[in-house]
Amino acid sequence: MIQPMHDPTPSCCPGPRPARLAPATRPASVPRSDPGGGPPLNLVTVPGGEFTLGTDTPRYPQDGEGPARRVRLAGFRLAPHQVANREFTEFIRQTGHRTEAERLGWSYVFEGAGPPAKSVIGRSSEASWWLGVQGATWSSPEGPGSTVDDRPDHPVVHVSWNDARAYAEWAGGRLPTEAEWEAAARAGSTTTYPWGEELAPDGRHMCNVWQGVFPVTDRGGDGWRGTAPVGSYPANAFGLYDMIGNVWEWCSDWFSAARPPEGADPQGPSNGLGRVTKGGSFLCHRSYCARYRPAARTSNTPDSTTSHMGFRLAADL
User: Fold this and answer.
1) Contact between 56 and 66 (Cβ < 8 Å)
2) How far is 96 from 102, CA to CA, in rounded Å?
3) Residues 248, 252, 254, CA angle at the centre, nearest 5°?
4) Which among 143, 175, 292, 315 has most CB atoms closer than 10 A?
């Protein structure tokens, strides 16, 4: 049975650490000039300047959401959407990369996704809705019998931080820092969400999060149960899609609840146990995990893989 690492504050969204079983219209883009083996990078320019990150009214103080502070960032580029299955498929085709879930032989799948019972090898003791599923990988997200052939434009999942970094190196990009990610998500705003104070202003769904009673019923009121195709919701003021919801996104930083002070281009601590993830996912719900806010943050170990974690690319100007 699975013996996950202990997480003292499990929730619907961050997911458990893996067991140690073995040692819409797109915005204007910028042509890639970076070296790399992938297709041209179509990235949005995020202008440099001063940004307010964090919050003085944290919902989860233990996560290091506060305090609010001013940081200065150099300009950079960021992908308008999360890396999709069709893009990751090309990476695998060209490189033969084997993801950590493939090498380990299993990954965590949300129980509500209906993985085949015969492939379930255990249940997380920290969050019972997470099942260890033999054969769950980026190309078989719910385990044997599932495929991404019918969802080429959905974000790739079951990729670890290490897998995401390998993709970024192949593509000629990198993972964003947490400060870059948050500044890009806010797009100049200082409100709870990039679009204002209400999650669904006037009943309009702005992102893909859980609609209903978690973890029992997702009504799909925002149009989707599970992942949505990238770009399904309105872009923010910088022309970036899905910065909130859909899937968690890996950042380059090591995680620490002690946030960096004000300053220029913060990179996070020099070491740690987990890497930062931002943005929330389709499993986030206010009753368990209201981390679908730019200020919110969590982490996972660099080899963790689940059905609600993905990434997007960044690059220097």
Assistant:
1) yes
2) 12
3) 95
4) 292
Residue with tokens 């970094």: 165
> Quick one: how far is CA 228 from the chain centroid?
13
By DSSP bridging, strand 263-264 and strand 69-73 are parallel
d(CA 136, CA 141) in angstroms, rounded, equals 5
Burial class (CB in 10 A: 0-12, 13-18, 19+), 303: middle
Q: What is the pTM of this model?
A: 0.89
Each residue's pLDDT tens digit in the chain (317 positions)? Answer: 343 333 323 345 444 444 433 223 222 333 333 445 666 678 999 999 999 999 999 999 999 999 999 999 999 999 999 999 999 999 999 999 999 999 999 999 999 999 999 999 999 988 889 999 999 999 999 999 999 999 999 999 999 999 999 999 999 999 999 999 999 999 999 999 999 999 999 999 999 999 999 988 898 888 899 999 999 999 999 999 999 999 999 999 999 998 767 788 998 899 999 999 999 999 999 888 999 999 999 999 999 999 999 999 999 99
CA distance 191 to 153: 30
Strands (E), the chain: 44-46, 49-53, 69-73, 76-78, 106-110, 120-123, 130-134, 212-213, 217-218, 248-254, 263-264, 275-278, 298-300, 309-310, 314-316
Q: Is residue 260 within 8 Å of 188, Cβ to Cβ?
A: no
Name all domains of the chain by residue range, CATH numbers in brackets.
44-316 (3.90.1580.10)
Look at residues 108, 95, 67 and name the one whose alpha carbon lies nearest to residue 281. Answer: 108
Q: What are phi and psi of 96, to 5 degrees?
A: 70, 15
Amino acid at 177: T
17 close to 273: Cβ distance less than 8 angstroms:
no
Are 180 and 73 contacting, i.e. CB atoms less than 8 angstroms apart?
A: yes
Give me the residues paired with residue 72 across strands: 50, 264
Query: Which runs of consecutive H residues, i.e. helices, occur in 46-131?
Result: 85-95, 100-104
